[in-house]
Amino acid sequence: MFSKPMMVGLALTLAVVPLLVLSGCNQSADQSASDAKVALEKRAKGEAHKDGAAKKKDDEHGHKPGAHGGIIVEIGRDNYHAEAVFEKGGLLKLYTLGKDEAQIIDVEKQVIEAYVKEESAIDSVKIELNPVPRTGDKEGRTSQFVGKLPQELAGKAVVVTVQMIVIDGVRYRIGFASTPPKHDEGMPIGANPQDEKNLYLKPGGIYTEADIKANGNMTASQKFKDFKPRHDLKPKPGEKICPITLTKANAQCTWIVAGKTYEFCCPPCVYEFVSQAKDPQQAKDIKEPAYYVKKK
User: What pTM was estimated for this model as a whole?
Assistant: First the structure.
């Protein structure tokens, strides 16, 4: 999720990536592709890249305004898009779009499970997004899904992780936030030192005391203080990929969870991954490290 941005803003957003079956990911990792704040947020959030190269205006984490005033997120490696619209009263609408964001596409009718949480929270609440076909959608298909946020989260800054959406037989995972986050190199935006300590230095879910000790009894912002992320959106077959964004993983950005070492593209994704690991509902979907490898 991140749950907070910074990333994947979480760092959250976030990201949109095909289903890792953690959520949507009961598919091969190569079909997945940046969560919440996921991030989310990955899933999927703007970041300033400074590594001697020119700054990219729009990278895989970027959100753009949608036709309905919502947030545009990628599904897969720019295979499809979706527009997430948060309305008054806690109503959440998700519109499915093509590779061209201006193209409306209909997908298989299905009930989508999503997990929602406040940016500063760890635990999430499950909601359902139901298919609501629009004029022009083919029979048995829909271009719109509608759900309702829990009353206590309506109107607040939240991070949403869609565990699985099926498009033409392929399963994807999507992560996004109600407010477009910025991908940063440090802690997720909105996080304070105490929030970070609570996340990294307290066990929960499959994240254990042994993991905390193995990670040096420190937070990600401490461990990766001088880390400079460099995102490679097109990993080659056989290369390790980030569990959140499914971009190329960086061997210098690792974190131990459940006694296993996972590699990430940037610290925001570590934040999101640990948040998921501590969430009882999402933790059970986390795969073994060997799963996160680019397939042919």
Answer: 0.48
